[in-house]
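ARCHIVE CARD
SHELF: 3
SLOT: left
DATA:
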Amino acid sequence: MKTVVITGASTGIGRAAAEHLASKGWRVFAGVRKHSDGEPLKQASGNITPLILDVAKPDQVKAAVETVSKALSGKTLDGLVNNAGIAMMGPLALQPLDEIERHFDVNVFGLMRATQTFLPLLGMDEQRDGSPGRIVNITSVGGRLSSPFLGAYAATKHAVEALTDSLRRELVVYGIDAIAIGPGSVKTPIWDKAEDINKNQPYQNSVWAQPIETFAEVMLQGGRDGLEPKVIGETIEKALSSETPKARYAPVPNKLTNWIIPTRLPKRWLDGIFWKRFGLERQD
């Protein structure tokens, strides 16, 4: 039985991936921040073991590694899926720095904390038996395309793209692969959480008040009409299991208009599209 660790598995992509991989015979250690979040996962499958794992807390990451190491009994870990992440809307000119730092604490430094701490289990400890494991980092369309009002989130996902490429090019000496999955809109609670924050209208007295409201409506509707989380779970399985995995997967709804064309347009053209769509114009 292959073993995988998934961070941020309480809801959305992480939970869907845990349940999908468990249904395919994987032993899944699912990272959650509260014991109550782990109960539905245990009930979903006997192959899922919840782990209290907040990637921003070093002591919890260390404890999780010790638990998984004991369960592996000297064998290698087959996969680490870095999925934990947060997203909060706001114009970069006004968004509090501690809020921006929080994005990096979870989405970037938390990802690297988990990666570095689990790497011995994935194969850097050459005393372990078994083939080297794989790292799968969940990034986003925002890892390549930066929209207004999600600058902090996009910056972290750009960082994850770079870290994934560097890890893959470095860890080849141990046979450990690193793969990025950059989904488009997915039906997950992350945008509902963003909506709750935006309801307080922290920027209502700024020139960005109406554009942010328009942007939030578009993003939230996109999320509700997006891909089912199970689709990303299936992509994760492919990344972990394929004999010749891609370096990056892009499961994006309406892929031509939401990914292929925007990634090929000149940036100034994209600027104009964003400005027009969200009512951004020079204030005289």
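SLOT: right
DATA:
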Amino acid sequence: MTITTPTSTHTGGRTLAAGATGFTGSPRLAANLQAVLVDLIELHLVAKQAHWNVVGPNFRGLHLLLDEVVDAAREAADTLAERMRALGSTPDGRSDTVASTTSLPALPAGELSTATAAAAVAVRLRTAASTARAVHDQVDAEDPSSADLLHAVIGTLEKQAWMLAAETGAVGTSPDDVA
């Protein structure tokens, strides 16, 4: 029996295996990451909408906190989309795709009281975290590195949800409680 090993190329102190192509994710992995991505993009848009239209007591504090949510969602979406590209899939952040596939409920139109805005965005943060939790185990089974990104996303979203909910005392609000 002959054992064949790939030939190597030696360059600058490093040995490169011939034919090394890297890891390519499965369609299931891409779909799971895409589900989280669209929720993050929608969260970014919803939080910005609330940021622009919030009125009432503690306006300034909530206005600034909503921008933190916007930044966190946008950064997480970018990191996840770039991970998808690194795994050979194509992230889809087009508005029609996001609108038709997100699990986040639509935000009410018009001005939002500070209490309504904080509670509504907190619910959407928890919903996005739930999406990441729902796909986590399948992602982890195929690509622990991508699962690590989901850990960070979940931690960030849940922290932001807690901070917003603490603004109104709605820490235990479920997604069904706030439209």
